[in-house]
Every structure is written in C-alpha cells, then in structure tokens.
Amino acid sequence: MNVNEFIRNANLAKDESKLRELIKVGEYILKHCEENEKGKVLGTLGNIHFQLKNFDEAEKYYLDALQFYINLSNEDLANIRFVSACLHNLGNLYQARKNYDEAIKSYSDALKTLEYSNDHQLRLSTLIALGTLHAKIGNLHECEENLREALEIAERIGDENKFITVLNNLAFLYLKLKKKNEAKILLKKAMNLIDKGDFKAAPILQNLLNLVDDSEFNSIVVKLEKLNLPYDLKAKVNYIKAKRLERTDKDLAAENYIKAGCFSFLAYRVLGLQSVNFIYCFERAMTLSSSLYEDAKFLRDVIAKVYLGLNFDFNPRCKLAGALRDYIKSGKITIDEPISDVIRIVAGDGRAELADLNANL
C-alpha cells in the first residue's frame, strides 16, 4: 500500500478494527516513504488516533506533522497552508479534550497563518469551529464575529451547505442576543434560498420568525404557504403560525394546529421524517376551540388507535367520522387537504383497527 492508498483507506474507514490495522500500516509507511510524503502520513495517523479517541497519540502525530510543515514552509511559503491544517486539527483535538484555551489558541493561530494562503475552505471551516467553540463556552460576541466572517466567505465562494450551517448558528445566536435587525438580515437570506427552491434553510425560520413584528410575520407566512414545501416544513410553518395566533384568534390558531398535526403526521407516515408533535397539535386545538374540538379529537383518536395502539372513545357522528365512512365505502372524499390526505392514509393502513369503528359509523 502506497501513501495515497493509505490516506484514501483511512478517510473511508469507520470500523475500529480496520482503523487499528491502518495504524500499523501507517507506521510502516512512515519509516519507508519519501521524506516529502512524511507530513501527510503523520497527519493521517493523527486523524486515525483522533477517531479512536487516542488523544495523546493523536496530539503527538499532529505536533510532529506541524513541525514538519513549519520546516517546509520556511523553505517555501506555499506550504503554510499545511501548517494551518495541522493547527486546525489540533484545535479539534483540544476541543474534544475540553482544553478550550488551547483549542482557541490553535484555531486562532490557524487563522493567522491562513492570511498567507488562499485556502478559503479551510478558513471557513476554522471560523465555524472557533465560532461554535466560543458559543459553547459563552463568548457570544466572539462567536458572532467569527460566524459573520464565515457567512461572508461561504456566500462568496458559493458553499451552500456551510452557508446554511452558519446561517442557522447565527440564528440561534441572535435569539440569545435579541438582535432583531441582524436577525431580519438572516431571515431575508433564508427566504432568498427558499425562493430558489432550496428548503434546507427553512428550519432557520423557526428560530427567527418570533423576532419579527406581526405584519412582517404575516407576509413571510403567506409567502411560505404559496411554496411547495415538504410536509415536515409545512407542519412547522403552521405550528409557528398557530402559536402566534393564540394571542388574537383561538379558533384560527386551532385550525392551524390541526393543519400542523396533519402535515406532521404525513411527514412521519409518508416520508419517515420527524416534525412537530402531531398528537400535541391536535390536543392543543381541542383546548383552544370548541367548534373544532370534535375534528381535532377524532384525528388524534384515529391516529393513536391505528399507529400507537391506543384506544379512545370515538364519536361516530362527528363530521370527520362521516368522511372516513364515506371514503371507506365509496373511495370519495369531500374534506379539504391536508385532513383528506390523512383520512385516505389512515383508512388504507387501519382497516383491521377500524373494523369496529366502521361498523358503528
């Protein structure tokens, strides 16, 4: 196995026995490889030990790799980016060991050396790691500084995944700091992504919508409701809307809780995704609205019976029970979405569980 094959296998390996086997291979290669390849082998051995939580051994190899690349960069400054990578790895190691002061120093030193190279990806990753660490230990202003720079870099180089990661981290931060103006900027960036059909940014809205006033909130929700969002995000939008409406219109809040519960159930049943708690949504609607109580109760009860094995007392005369009866008999349904989608799926999945109920409808 040559150096490149060793590195490739190490990057792919997850099994502990395979990683331990690769340590022996790497130690052999280190003794026999060309001098200019030793830095890569040292760094990879450090990564393997880090994965195995052999932190003392990982530190030894990372420091050896660091010194190797410092020596090379003294001869050719182009090698400074490898020094930065070693310092980043040491930052990860010290953070894992909860040696936060050393981790901050290593990440910060990595950023200083990155001033001499154009490795934007490594700078971005280091800023995210350092910002996340500052947030963990309560240095919120330092966290903001790092994440704002990371967001600018991610946007500039077009790294969408890291852009959304940083956007989400900043959203949490601005919630803590109560910075409404900054939050609105993030909200606009998230909406721009959603407008382009990238729904990975949609969960960020859950963190930020509570910071905007009612007019802004309503305009954003109207815009979201026009989009073809997946079920789990539709559930979250309706849930947020319902919570907001509790202050002003309990019946409308209950209606949105029912929609949220339905969409969340559909996300669970159709897509296998977790969203808001659909049982809670139906029960909250039952609490808020007497006019929608029976609908919400029936949805809760029938889902709980078919999917959770719980027995509730059904009201066979309520509107949705009638809709279920009609669908089972004729395959036709006149109830609006998303309730109609729930009834179709429940009727198909729960024929045995609903046999007695069907007889009584």
Summary tags:
mainly alpha
3D architecture notes:
The chain has helices at residues 3-12, 16-32, 38-51, 55-75, 80-96, 100-113, 120-136, 140-157, 160-177, 180-195, 202-208, 214-225, 231-245, 250-271, 278-288, 293-308, 319-330, 339-349, 355-360. Helix 7 (120-136) packs parallel to helix 9. The chain has 361 residues and is an all-alpha fold. 76% of the residues lie in helices and 0% in strands. The longest helix has 22 residues, at 250-271. It has 19 helices and no strands.
The number of strands is: 0
Secondary structure tally, helices: 19
* Strand-residue proportion: under 5%
Counting copies of identical and different chains, the oligomeric state is single chain
Largest sheet: none
Which class do the helix and strand fractions yield?
mainly alpha
Instruction: Give helix and strand order, one letter per element, not per position.
Output: HHHHHHHHHHHHHHHHHHH
Gap between N and C termini? 72 Å
**Approximate helicity band:** over 70%
Rg estimate, integer Å: 28 Å
Average pLDDT, rounded to a whole number, is 88
Low-confidence stretches: none
Inertia-based shape: elongated
Offer a quick outline of the entry.
The chain contains 19 helices and no strands.
